């Protein structure tokens, strides 16, 4: 069974919706049994239950900001795997603009696992472009266009 670009993007949107809804179980369940999540701070969680256990207290104890994102590309690695790349920003609770300090690159590797398409790897890499503030501003402008 081949995965379409729309299905890959829909899986990514489900991941973001789970984050934005602060739903650790829904987010963890999108991963393969041994899937990995690498957070913005470099923390690594392996496996659905570890991902859930990592996210649950974050959502319970911190007012996490919702993501605004733009898919930049999807590349197939065969009939049963693909990579999605996106940029994302966050609008802090109670505010209406993106906080450029937490802009990020998202990388998603999806695989066909037991007949279902699931996330094998989600990596959330800070996009600070050290020494190149014009790139931070360019990304922020691109993400701000999604707010209107």
Mean pLDDT: 93
Strand proportion, as a percent range, falls in: 35-45%
Q: Give the low-pLDDT segments.
A: none
As a whole number of angstroms, the C-alpha radius of gyration is 15 Å
In DSSP terms (H or I, runs of 4 or more residues), the helix count works out at 4
Alpha-beta classification: alpha+beta
Description:
- Strands 2-1-6-5-4-3 form a six-stranded mixed sheet.
- Helices cover 32% and strands 36% of the residues.
- The chain contains four helices and six strands, in the order ααββαββββα.
- The chain is globular, with a radius of gyration of 15 Å.
- With 148 residues, it is of the alpha+beta class.
List strands and helices in order, with pairings:
Elements lengths: L4 H16 L3 H5 L2 E8 L5 E3 L1 H14 L5 E12 L2 E10 L13 E10 L2 E11 L6 H12 L4
Parallel strand pairs: 1-6
Antiparallel strand pairs: 1-2, 3-4, 4-5, 5-6
Key words describing this protein structure:
32% helix, 4 helices, globular, 148 residues, alpha+beta
Compose a concise summary of this entry.
The chain has 148 residues and is an alpha+beta fold.
């Amino acid at each position: 069974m081949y995965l379409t670009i729309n299905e890959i993007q829909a899986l990514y949107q489900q991941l973001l919706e789970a984050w934005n809804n602060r739903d650790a179980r829904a987010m963890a369940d999108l991963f393969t049994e041994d899937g990995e999540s690498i957070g913005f701070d470099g923390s690594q969680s392996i496996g659905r239950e570890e991902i859930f256990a990592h996210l649950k207290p974050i959502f319970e104890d911190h007012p996490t900001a919702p993501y605004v994102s733009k898919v930049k590309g999807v590349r197939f690695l065969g009939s049963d795997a693909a990579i999605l790349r996106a940029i994302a920003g966050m609008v802090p609770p109670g505010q209406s603009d993106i906080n450029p300090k937490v802009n990020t690159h998202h990388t998603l590797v999806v695989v066909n696992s037991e007949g279902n398409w699931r996330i094998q790897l989600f990596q959330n890499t800070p996009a600070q472009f050290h020494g190149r503030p014009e790139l931070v501003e360019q990304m922020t402008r691109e993400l701000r266009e999604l707010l209107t």
